Amino acid sequence: MISSGFGMGVPRRCRQNIACRGVPVIPRYALIYSGRDAAGRRQHGREAARRRAMTPWYQAEDAQGRDGTHALVIGVSDYRYLPAAFDEAPPDGAGETLGLTSVTTPAVSAWRFANWLAGESGLNRPEAPLASVRLLLSPSQAEVDATPALGGLDAATVPLPTRDNVLDALYAWRDACNARPGNLGVLYVAGHGIQLSKDDSLVLLHDFGRAHRPILDAAMDLGSIWRGMAGPDAAQLQYYFVDACRTKPGLFDDYLSTRAGVAFDVTDEGGVESAPIFYSASPRTLALGLPADGTLFCQALLRCLDGEAAELDANGRWVVSTSSLVRHLPAAVDRLAAEHQARQSAVVGGLLRDGVFHYLPEPPEVDLGIHISPKAAAARARCRLADFSGRQVYDRRPVPPEIDLRVKAGLYALQLEVENDGPPVLRPFLAAPPRHREEIAL
Do the domains spanning 3-359 and 365-441 agree at the CATH topology level? Predict the structure, then answer.
């Protein structure tokens, strides 16, 4: 079951406008918890434990004095001032909520991405190993029920993604990234998203919707943050993953001006070599997710990082790079959405100079398909497949016209011979992820 907009539906003020633009509206099969039960109250009590000097969730012991990767990961599912469902009133203290509700997929998605970064089989970048991960989460009860580890978070290392906490984390993350130009900066943020124009992207934070505050006081301006990360001391390679809807609520048509409360000042000093931004949704469209099971974008991203976006570099290593993510991540999102009879289009922006994000420790797996025609010839053929070392992967006589295998990526030699029908067919090829197909006509 899949839900539109991370299971939150479409803001009431903009549903009609979105439908008119031809965006598919996918039925909500599961709506979200209220966040006001006992577990929710315990979570909201974490607000009192916020610390200005925020302790990273992950900190490498030997990170000083060398280049490293510094990540900031934010996932907002439970919203302090939003109701659980469209037919419920907002909580006490709420102001303008844009007709939104709490959601059930961003926090678990951010949690999984952070754990991928810090896991044993996660980020592998010897020239800039993982040095720190700052993590801010507000999980829904549905996510806690499905992923119990989300229920015991320490406020000192995983604070709530409130406006003030996110500002503190952003500046600490920027300082860490800017400590050495060879550092790598990574930002992943998931939650409710809106746009005021086709060129911006705002993500709403845990205390969005509080009464007597500017309407976007608790919103992140991703464009400002991206531009503000350039400077004379900036980390020269940065990656941004924005996992949120990009719809425009009609309410803002009446505003002369407004600005997000979480933003960087932008100067014209310095620059960076590469800073791609991967958006989970194209302008004016929704991002999708499976309730309590994560966003489609994050699932596709993790598949890409685990090998679906790997390509062979000039030194014979399987790597996930800027260019391979540009090629494979939008396609992976398309495929995953199609599996759920839905549509979602990830898009890429920013500075796209190529660079390596992740080295795979071993060749990834590939879905290999071999089609032999005509069928009558396949029934009389012998098929042998060997890898580059000469190890036999497949040897069969007769063979079906369609052969489906799961193999390690790499170079292969295919040999097909038909009884009493001339010399064998020899076919070398490179099997690269996510899938490779060979057509053989005998």
Answer: no
Looking at domain 3-359, its CATH class is: alpha beta
Band (pLDDT 50/70/90 cuts) for residue 82 is very high
- Write down the domain spans for the chain: 3-359, 365-441
Q: What is the pLDDT of residues 373-388, one digit of tens each?
A: 999 889 999 999 999 9
Question: By C-alpha distance, which of 395, 398, 392, 439 is closest to 412?
Answer: 392
- C-alpha–C-alpha distance, residues 226 and 134, integer Å: 17
Residue pair 69/131 in contact by the 8 Å Cβ criterion: yes
**For residue range 328-372, what is the model confidence (pLDDT) as tens digits?**
999 999 999 999 999 999 999 999 999 999 999 999 999 999 999
CATH architecture entry for 365-441: Sandwich (2.60)
Return the SS3 of 187: strand
Q: How do residues 227-267 score in pLDDT, each as one tens digit?
A: 999 988 899 999 999 999 998 887 777 776 788 999 999 88
- Cα–Cα dist 341/354, whole Å: 33
Q: What is the reported pLDDT for 256? A: 65
CA 41, chain centre distance (Å): 29
341: left (phi over 0), alpha (psi -120 to 50) or beta: left
Residue 384 CB burial class (10 angstroms; 0-12, 13-18, ≥19): middle
CA distance 292 to 303: 18
